[in-house]
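Lab manual, section 2.4: Encoding a predicted structure.

Procedure: take the sequence of the chain (219 residues), apply the prediction step described in section 2.3, and record the output as structure tokens. A sample record is shown.
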Amino acid sequence: RNFRFIKPLNNSGTSYQNYKKMEGFEGKKEKVLKMSQAEGFRKGAYAGIFSTIGVMAANHYSTFFKTKLSVSAKTAIALSPALGVYSFTAEMLMYNAGKDPFSYGIYPDGHEKDQPVVQKVDRLKWYHSAANFAYNKPLILIGSIGIPTISAVYWNQNRAGHEHLNLSHRILNTRVLGQFSFLAIILSVMFFRDYMDHKGGLFVENEEGAIVREHEPFE
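Recorded output:
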């Protein structure tokens, strides 16, 4: 998110720089944790409902699934998506809301929630937003690139010309090539994030409307 300061809290004349300092106000950690857990439970419950329906359908229509898998395995398949979605959602919200609590409606006690503090603007170019996304959410970027890459490797192992390989060899080749590809993606994203941090971090808009970096570059 990229924001421009427009109004101080309670008309106190607080500057934009002081608002950045206020992001560490007392009680923020508890409020962020409560919001993250609630949102994680909500999305985890949705994921659990769909995964449970999928397991029930597979148990009803698939003889292999019904006879070859134990009750504990079926239970694990049904619960794992819910736990994974809960953990991922809560972790991402804690990270993002911890850095920018105001944009998530988390304010210090005594301030009105409906009083505007910042306003979203769209002056950043697409490449600024893309760089900020890679800087803020490297895990999502790595997963969104890595998973399709591994899927493409496995698809290639099943194309014509690989008939001489059995399933175990295809999986082994996919694992080796996939691990190499994933490692290259991780190193590339982490190098880019380190480069951005060295040059000043995120692209943001200051009070005058100019696009600047979040902090001073490292020497």
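Check your result against the sample. The beta strands are 3-5, 118-120, 203-205, 211-213.
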